[in-house]
Design a protein that fits this description.
This protein is mainly β. It has no helices and six strands.
Length: 87
């Protein structure tokens, strides 16, 4: 089984890209998936799309936390944590 994480990242600075790390944390952390999101320069917007899959096969049943962390070259960060449960 896998968990697909899809979302959009928007930023208001002039940074041309963002680095996003997606992972599942808990008793035993999963291997983080890192993506480099280039800005859509054709439209002039500062945005990117996250689309990663995380394997669940090695995770035990119980509570976990999906962590999404975005970092801009200027140093600004945004972090979201979403509680999940594997049954």
């Amino acid at each position: 089984d896998t968990l697909r994480v899809f979302g959009r990242v928007f930023w208001g600075t002039k940074d041309a890209a963002a680095d996003v790390t997606v992972s599942i944390t808990g008793a035993h952390a999963s291997t983080p998936q890192t993506r480099h999101l280039a800005s859509d320069t054709a439209s002039g917007s500062h945005a990117g799309v996250i689309d990663v899959t995380l394997p669940l096969k090695d995770l035990a049943t119980g509570p976990w936390v999906l962590v999404i962390n975005a970092t801009l070259p200027s140093g600004q960060t945004a972090r979201r944590e979403i509680a999940i449960e594997i049954k």
